[in-house]
């Protein structure tokens, strides 16, 4: 579960708040999709939840742990995939994953099993001994995903996770997200793709100009707007609200 309470964030000396007093609860057992136009505040929100940035006001709890007061324990709850999979190019895939295993203090047997299981799921096993510099964007994305998920974190936070994935890998990831949520855990992800939001999410949140303008199910949004196409509703919402 993620609880965001009265959170605001301004970058440097900017006059405009990147996040303006946002409140949001992402529940156990759900896939929550976070939508909004470019520059709305999605990545900023994600960077505050993961402790990469500090908020100016408010608080964020991850499974009840305050990310400001107890950052290490909060981070242990989280598997995070950033929007840009630029990672240590000089390492091989396996060296990178072992480094992550060290950070999370995984024992060697559990680590090896988890790496092989996930590498097989994402069909990247044969490339693990290659240098990351030779990987395609999609392969780097898969490696970052494996690194984020291998320590069995209860809360998955994925920033545009499907970008660069081939259809089969995107399908695999969506299946894993569903299984994770169905086991009572939390998946929070940002996306620009309406079809993904509609098919995958239990609830969605829409952010615009640093303010949350909708939280609920896609069905509730459609009922409210009396329209069938999520894309039309989304475009209307971000223009008018
Ligand atoms: N490092 C930064 N320094 C200054 N302003 C920033 C920085 N990062 C983001 N911003 C500003 O904060 C606001 C929110 O940006 P953010 O990256 O959170 O949006 P986003 O919803 O993730 O957008 P996108 O869909 O384009 O990735 C924007 O106005 C952006 O210009």
TrEMBL record:
Keywords: ATP-binding, Nucleotide-binding, Transport. It comes from the Bacteria. Residues 2-234 form the ABC transporter domain. InterPro entries: AAA+_ATPase, ABC_transporter-like_ATP-bd, ABC_transporter-like_CS, ABC_Transporter_VariousFunc, P-loop_NTPase. PROSITE patterns: ABC_TRANSPORTER_1, ABC_TRANSPORTER_2. GO terms for molecular function: ATP binding; ATP hydrolysis activity. SMART domains: AAA. Gene3D superfamilies: P-loop containing nucleotide triphosphate hydrolases. This is ABC-2 type transport system ATP-binding protein. It comes from Caloramator proteoclasticus DSM 10124.
């Amino acid at each position: 579960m993620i609880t965001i309470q009265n959170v605001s964030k301004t970058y440097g000396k900017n006059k405009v708040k990147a996040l303006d007093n946002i409140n949001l609860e992402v529940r156990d057992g759900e896939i929550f999709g976070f939508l909004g136009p470019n520059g709305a505040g999605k990545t900023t929100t994600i960077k505050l939840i993961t402790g990469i940035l500090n908020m100016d006001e408010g608080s964020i709890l991850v499974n009840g742990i305050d990310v400001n007061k107890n950052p290490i324990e909060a981070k242990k709850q989280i598997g995070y995939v950033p929007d840009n999979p630029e990672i240590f190019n000089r390492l091989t895939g396996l060296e990178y994953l072992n480094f992550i295993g060290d950070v999370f203090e995984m024992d060697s047997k559990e680590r090896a099993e988890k790496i092989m299981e996930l590498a097989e799921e994402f069909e990247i096993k044969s490339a693990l001994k290659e240098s990351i510099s030779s990987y395609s964007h999609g392969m780097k994305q898969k490696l970052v995903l494996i690194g984020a998920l291998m320590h069995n974190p209860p809360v998955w936070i994925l920033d545009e996770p499907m970008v660069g994935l081939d259809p089969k890998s995107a399908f695999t990831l969506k299946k894993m997200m569903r299984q994770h949520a169905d086991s009572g855990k939390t998946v929070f992800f940002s996306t620009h793709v309406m079809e993904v939001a509609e098919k995958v999410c239990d609830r969605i949140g829409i952010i615009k100009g640093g303010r949350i303008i909708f939280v609920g199910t896609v069905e509730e949004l459609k009922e409210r707007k009396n329209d069938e196409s999520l894309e039309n509703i989304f475009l209307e919402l971000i223009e008018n609200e």
